[in-house]
């Protein structure tokens, strides 16, 4: 039988740190594309929310750059499936925006809350292993939380569509993160649960 806990204990944290950077950088890129598609549709259908979306997209552009800059000293490289994140983000943002402005905010809530959860796991892992990256992620997490709050506050109704869409979009985001970290997102969560 495989002893999972000793396998995890022997694992080189640098590998996980590289995966964290890779998935965060790719995720920010996906977020830029989600907001980009939403902005394109919103300009035509509900231009009043464009300024808020543009502000959030600017934050994601900044996060993406910060994660990219943190890569070289940790020998991390961008994700090889960036095009998938790009396409996935754009399609998700576009479809959500076609559903109307309420769906835009439901989509934003689902994605940002999944991101927030994963950053929480990463912070627990990094606290003792990479304090600099920990500080960077903590400051980014604050802005992601502001995006989440804005998305929640902008929803006029909280009906069936929200109840149905939240788990679907949140699940898709989790899946992309899990795939991009080769499953590391699960064991980081398991490790936190043990602590
Ligand atoms: Fe971000
Ligand atoms: Fe965000």
From TrEMBL:
Q: Note the superkingdom of the native organism.
A: Bacteria
Pathway info: Cofactor biosynthesis; ubiquinone biosynthesis
List the transmembrane segments.
163-182
* Key words of the record: Iron, Membrane, Metal-binding, Monooxygenase, Oxidoreductase, Transmembrane, Transmembrane helix, Ubiquinone biosynthesis
**Would you indicate the residue range of the signal peptide?**
none
PANTHER family per record: 5-DEMETHOXYUBIQUINONE HYDROXYLASE, MITOCHONDRIAL, COENZYME Q10 BIOSYNTHESIS PROTEIN 7
Name of this chain's protein: Demethoxyubiquinone hydroxylase family protein
Source organism per UniProt: Microvirga terricola
């Amino acid at each position: 039988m495989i002893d999972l806990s000793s396998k995890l204990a022997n694992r080189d944290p640098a590998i996980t740190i590289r995966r964290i950077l890779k998935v965060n950088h790719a995720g920010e890129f996906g977020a830029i594309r989600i907001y980009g598609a939403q902005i394109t549709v919103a300009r035509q259908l509900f231009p009043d929310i464009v300024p808020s979306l543009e502000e959030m997209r600017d934050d994601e552009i900044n996060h993406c750059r910060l994660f990219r800059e943190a890569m070289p000293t940790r020998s991390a490289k961008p994700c090889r499936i960036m095009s998938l994140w790009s396409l996935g983000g754009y399609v998700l943002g576009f479809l959500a925006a076609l559903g109307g402005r309420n769906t835009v905010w439901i989509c934003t809530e689902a994605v940002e809350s999944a991101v927030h959860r994963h950053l929480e796991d990463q912070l627990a892992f990094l606290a003792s292993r990479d304090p600099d990256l920990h500080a960077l992620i903590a400051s980014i997490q604050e802005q992601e939380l502001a995006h989440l709050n804005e998305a929640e506050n902008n929803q006029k109704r909280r009906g069936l569509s929200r109840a149905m869409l939240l788990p679907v979009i949140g699940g898709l985001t989790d899946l992309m993160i899990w795939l991009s970290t080769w499953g590391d997102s699960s064991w980081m969560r398991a490790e936190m649960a043990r602590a």
